[in-house]
Structure formats: structure tokens, C-alpha cells
């Protein structure tokens, strides 16, 4: 306890230095989806490696290979593996994060240059990557550096895996994790990821579930070329008419999926799970304010959360091949592709989801009697992830949260997906904890992304406190 308090005191003293370090890395525009920025992504990875090595960590740079980005062949940015400490008497914690960021231009609507960190009077630290995920990635580094500066022995062996392609599909990462599972990652006791957010703006949380995602293209093809509607309207089966009809059959206006059998695989709600919805920091009023309009479907807040976290949903995203520019154009498109996805939950399997969706759309298309051709194409089938919040790794995270913030954390799940969570769990056979640093209103991926100074500084304390709690926790319990 004395070591933890000493660590907290030094974190408080070095707040401004930590902000300046965040400013330094935000200034590196490591946008993985922009070919012109690829050298900056590499530079960011090299910055991390150099800083860890200066601390005394052993690092290994792994180059995942090549990528075809819009016809241009590029080197994938390096995955930086590292180890800090190798005491066989200590537990080993593996941490993951990413050092790439989303694109950002001031003309998108940013109040300030997105790659210049600005400290606002209200405590916001505004800049691209501040919360997603440079702030948390720095948190682990600054935690280790602060322990060394304070003369406090690290309570665990720390391994890390930092990638530069998370915002662009994590290309090559799964293969590296599989390859290194019994090599670099051997001996890992638990994994901790800080790459998500609190449910609200004030109360911390631990996240123990993520939905999977299955993505589909629904293609309808008719004539050999686009047609003039004045000449051919009413004389041919129009692909767009067929497509709109089929898309309308997938989900109703209240979000209920219409595909037969899709809910049969869903894990029933247990009494234990029902209790996790009590006293969460979540309100419809705040959510409607964030949405700038009250367009919520459900009357009860816990029903909204259940449909956000633990029930499957289906969303329609767009149409390729149709006229979408401003103005009028009387064209009948020859081939169109509708895009939609399902967010999946325990215990849904992607293969079964694809089977049900394909059969249903084939059956509905057959009812039309159309002479067009229809095809269902699954482009992605990512699985869900779920962990018990009673696992000792989560208990350690909860104790650390209470020590830093003085409250018990909310136990949450999320509607989005972090595929690497499942990759680590399945290949290393260890528990994974999601321990967020940022708040719900940080605006990751959006304009004016920020992390609050409070979350950044207290988050650095939280990561350190968590490592001390893990060191004193029986992980086999």
C-alpha cells in the first residue's frame, strides 16, 4: 500500500510532464489508412520502441508484411513486442494497445489543429489519438517510468504488444499472436487492454463483453447496362426495386431482426447478469442529448442497454451502384449492392448466422418472381467475446478502480467489437480484462477528440494500481 501511495504522489507531481509527452505523440500524425502518412505510423512505432528500450525493456520489432492500399503496395507498420522484467517469482501481465489513429483534417470541423494537443480551460486535452489510443498506450509507459523514478519495484513482469494498424483492420496481427503464443507471449498470466470507454462521463467501468459482427453484401443484377427509366420503366424487373424490397424485410422499425431463427442461439439472461444493470451511470436524457435528438426506441434504460450490448442487431449501411449525387438522374441501375451487418452475441456462431441470412433472403427473393439475379455475400464474420466479471483478473481491476476513484466500477459490455480480445484469449488461454481510461464523450473517431485531464492522470494511477492488485491476487481462484 505504501508503494502505491508513493506512486500516486509522483504521478500527481508529474502531471504536466505527462501532458507534454502526450502532446509529443499527438504531433505524430500516425494515420494508418493514409498512404502518405505511413512513414509517420512507422515513426510512432519506433518512438515507442526507443522509449521503452531507454527504460530497460527488451523489445522485438515484427514487420507483418505488405499491404495493397487502394492499388499502392505498402509495408505494414511494425508490431512492437516488449518485455519489462523477467522475474520467475512474479506474475506476468500482457498489455495491448495501438499507436495508429483515424484521419483528421481541420476542415472536417475541428476547432484546432487535430495534431496539436490543446489543453482547454475545462480540462479537455484535445487532439487526434488523445483517447484512442495514444493516451492509454502512454499510460503503460509512464506507469513503468514512474515506478523506476520513484524507486519502486514493478510488482509484475510486464509484456506489451503495440500495433499500428488497428484503425485499418489490424492486418497481420492475428498471425503474429498465433506465431508468438508459445514464444514471446509464453508465461503470460493475464491480459489487459485499455482501448474502450466508460459507459458515462463520470463513473469508471470494467468491460466484460463485446459483440461480434457479420457483414453482408446483397447484390441484385439485371440488364447488361444502366437503362433510361422513361424508355424501360415498367417493362423490366428493376434491380433497385428488388433490393429495396429485400432490405426492408431484414429488420422492422423497432430494431427487431426478421430473419427466422436468428434469436434461437442467443444466450438467455441470467439473474446474475440482470443484477449488472442496477445502478449504472446511464440515462436516456444524457443519451438523447448526445444524439442531438430523442430517437430512442425503448422506454426503459436497461432495455436500451440490453439491445446495445447483449441482443443481436441488424443495421443497413448503404447501397453501391445507385445514383447518389445531388440533382436528378432518371437512370435504372443495372446492378446494385446493399450493405448490412449483424452484431452478434453469445452464443451465436457466424457460420449459422450466414446460413440463416442467406436462406431467408433467397426465400424472399423467390417470392418476387423476378428475372434478376440475386446473391448474398458474407464479407466478414467476427465473433463475440464474453468473460465473467467475477474472474480474479476483473476482481483485481475492480479493487484498483475503487482505490483510485473511490467507487465500485460499473460492469459493462459494449456493442462494438475489438477482435484482438478473442485472439489473445483463445491463443494464450488466459483471461482478458478491458480496463478503459477515457469517458463516453471523448469523441474517438470524431472531430475534436479529447481525453479529460482527470481521466488521463487518474488513468495512469489506475493502470499502476491494477498491476499491484494483480500481483497480490490468486489468479487460479
UniProtKB/TrEMBL annotation:
Keywords for this protein: Hydrolase, Manganese, Metal-binding, Metalloprotease, Protease
Binding site for substrate: 195, 228, 330, 343, 417, 445
Sequence positions that bind Mn(2+) 2: 98, 132, 195
UniProt record, GO biological process: proteolysis
GO molecular function, one term: metallodipeptidase activity
Cofactor(s) named in the record: Mn(2+)
Catalytic center residues: 100, 166 (proton acceptor)
Pfam families (alphabetical): M20_dimer, Peptidase_M20
Note accompanying the cofactor annotation: Binds 2 manganese ions per subunit.
Residue ranges annotated for the Peptidase M20 dimerisation domain, each copy included: 209-366
Residues that hold Mn(2+) 1 according to the record: 132, 167, 445
Positions bearing the site annotation: Important for catalytic activity: 228
Family recorded in the similarity comment: Belongs to the peptidase M20A family.
Record protein name field: CNDP dipeptidase
Annotated source species: Linderina pennispora
Amino acid at each position: 500500500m505504501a508503494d502505491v501511495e508513493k506512486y500516486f504522489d509522483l504521478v500527481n507531481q508529474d502531471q504536466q510532464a505527462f501532458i507534454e509527452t502526450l502532446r509529443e505523440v499527438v504531433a505524430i500524425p500516425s494515420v494508418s489508412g493514409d498512404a502518405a502518412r505511413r512513414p509517420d505510423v512507422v515513426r510512432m512505432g519506433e518512438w515507442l520502441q526507443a522509449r521503452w528500450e531507454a527504460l530497460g525493456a527488451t523489445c522485438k520489432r515484427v514487420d507483418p508484411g505488405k499491404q495493397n492500399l487502394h492499388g499502392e503496395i505498402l509495408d505494414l507498420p511494425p508490431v512492437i513486442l516488449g518485455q519489462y522484467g523477467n522475474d520467475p517469482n512474479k506474475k506476468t501481465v500482457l498489455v495491448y494497445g495501438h499507436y495508429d489513429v483515424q484521419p483528421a483534417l481541420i476542415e472536417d470541423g475541428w476547432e484546432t489543429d487535430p495534431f496539436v494537443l490543446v489543453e482547454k480551460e475545462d480540462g479537455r486535452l484535445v487532439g487526434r489519438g488523445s483517447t484512442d489510443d495514444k493516451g492509454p498506450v502512454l499510460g503503460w509507459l509512464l506507469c513503468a517510468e514512474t515506478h523506476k523514478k520513484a524507486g519502486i519495484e514493478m510488482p509484475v513482469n510486464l509484456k506489451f504488444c503495440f500495433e499500428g494498424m488497428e484503425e485499418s483492420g489490424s492486418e497481420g496481427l492475428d498471425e503474429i499472436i498465433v506465431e508468438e503464443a508459445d514464444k514471446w507471449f509464453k508465461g503470460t498470466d493475464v491480459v489487459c487492454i485499455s482501448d474502450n470507454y466508460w459507459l458515462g462521463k463520470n463513473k469508471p467501468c470494467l468491460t466484460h463483453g463485446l459483440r461480434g459482427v457479420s457483414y453482408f453484401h446483397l447484390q441484385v443484377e439485371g440488364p447488361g447496362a444502366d437503362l433510361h427509366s422513361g424508355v424501360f420503366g415498367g417493362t423490366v424487373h428493376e434491380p433497385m426495386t428488388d433490393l429495396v424490397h429485400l432490405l426492408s424485410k431484414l429488420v422492422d422499425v423497432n430494431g427487431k431482426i426478421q430473419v427466422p431463427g436468428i434469436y434461437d442461439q442467443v444466450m438467455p439472461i441470467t439473474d446474475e447478469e440482470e443484477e449488472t444493470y442496477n445502478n449504472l451511470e446511464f440515462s436516456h436524457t444524457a443519451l438523447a442529448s448526445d444524439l442531438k435528438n430523442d430517437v430512442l426506441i425503448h422506454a426503459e434504460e436497461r432495455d436500451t442497454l440490453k439491445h446495445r450490448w447483449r441482443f443481436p442487431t441488424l443495421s443497413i449501411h448503404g447501397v453501391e451502384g445507385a445514383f447518389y449525387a445531388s440533382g436528378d438522374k432518371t437512370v435504372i441501375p443495372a446492378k446494385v449492392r446493399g450493405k448490412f451487418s449483424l452484431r452478434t452475441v453469445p452464443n451465436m456462431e457466424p457460420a449459422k448466422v450466414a446460413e440463416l441470412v442467406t436462406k431467408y433472403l433467397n426465400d424472399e427473393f423467390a417470392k418476387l418472381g423476378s428475372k434478376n439475379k440475386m446473391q448474398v455475400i458474407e464479407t466478414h464474420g467476427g465473433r463475440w467475446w464474453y468473460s465473467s466479471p467475477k474472474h480474479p483478473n476483473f476482481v483485481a481491476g475492480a479493487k484498483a478502480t475503487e482505490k483510485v476513484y473511490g467507487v465500485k466500477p460499473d460492469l459493462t459490455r459494449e456493442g462494438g467489437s475489438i477482435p484482438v480480445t478473442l485472439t489473445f484469449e483463445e491463443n494464450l488461454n488466459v483471461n482478458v480484462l478491458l480496463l478503459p481510461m477515457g469517458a463516453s464523450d471523448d469523441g474517438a473517431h470524431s472531430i475534436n477528440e479529447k481525453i479529460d485531464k482527470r481521466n488521463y492522470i487518474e488513468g495512469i494511477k489506475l493502470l499502476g494500481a491494477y498491476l499491484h492488485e494483480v500481483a497480490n491476487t490468486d489468479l487460479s481462484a
